[in-house]
Amino acid sequence: MAIVYSSGEIMILSHEKYLLDTLPSACKAKVGQLFNVETPFRMDAEAQALATRLENDNDDSCKRRKKKRKKCDTAHPLEEEMKHLLQIYSEHFVHGGLKHEYFPGLPSHQQIRLNNLPLREYVKKTISYVDDNFKNRINEDDYLIPQGAKFKICDISQFYTFCDERKFDVILMDPPWENKHVKRAKLAGSGGYQMLDNMDIQKIPVDKFLSEKGIVVIWCSNNIRHREAVSTWLRTWSLKQIAKLYWLKVTKHGELVCDFSSHKNPHEIIIIATNK
């Protein structure tokens, strides 16, 4: 991703800018469509109701019609993390001016009502095109390969067939985490991906592929089971965590893509580890 702002521990990243800078011949409008997230995640009925209330300008009804949630005796395991990220967002984006400078404006009532429908339809169409034209196709010409790099694509069980005794300075892992939403999508026949059990990932001999001063970068979801699994992997591979980055996702107007909650959150983490 391209860095568009950096100060201290805060960075604003743009995947859209990265793609356009990397592929200057790409259609700017088409790339832009993929990132045109105008409003936070909502169910369609919820978006319709919010747009109607705003259009009626009924201040009393707009002042937070929140459902009363039952108090839970045990705190969410990521509660402190969520509070910290919300504080950072409020200080730097809402009150610090970053939202106004880099994510100006607010969604219109019509955009709220549409609930990102144009984007959702465009993404479905794009995914369908990729599946029809590139699924089960392994062609080096289909990928952008950095200079000095080699192209390899394989199942993890085939690692030994091409790694041999080679070591890598950087190993990036974006595991196909087990996910209830993906399971439901696969059962419904509406997409999804092949998931991998945490124990199977742990069996990958990452320590044998990592150079002495190399680093391992792991994308992880907010599922506490997966967080704990990563800690187990690092111990198994004799690695130590040296940094943790938080990726906080926002709309084109700087709103969090969803609220912090015990079910869905607007962030993911990136864990960086190295040899002990």
Describe this protein's structure:
This protein has 276 residues and is of the alpha+beta class. Helices cover 40% and strands 17% of the residues. It is built from 13 helices and 6 strands. It has helices at residues 15-22, 28-34, 44-56, 59-62, 79-94, 98-102, 109-114, 117-134, 160-163, 180-187, 198-202, 206-209, 224-236, and strands at residues 2-7, 10-14, 168-173, 210-220, 239-248, 267-275. Strands 3-4-6-5 form a 4-stranded mixed beta sheet. A two-stranded antiparallel sheet has the order 1-2. A hairpin with a 2-residue loop joins strand 1 and strand 2. The longest helix has 18 residues, at 117-134. The radius of gyration is 21 Å and the shape is globular. The relative contact order is 0.13.
Residue fraction in strands: 15-25%
How would a textbook summarize the main sheet? 4 strands, mixed
Structural class: alpha+beta
Spatial ordering of strands, largest sheet: 3-4-6-5
Instruction: Summarize the amount of helix as a percent range.
Output: 40-55%
**Mean pLDDT, rounded to whole units?**
84
Number of helices: 13
The first-to-last residue Cα distance is: 29 Å
Tertiary shape: globular
Q: Total strand count, please?
A: 6
Compute the gyration radius: what is it?
Answer: 21 Å
Can you give me a brief rundown of this structure?
The protein contains 13 helices and six strands.
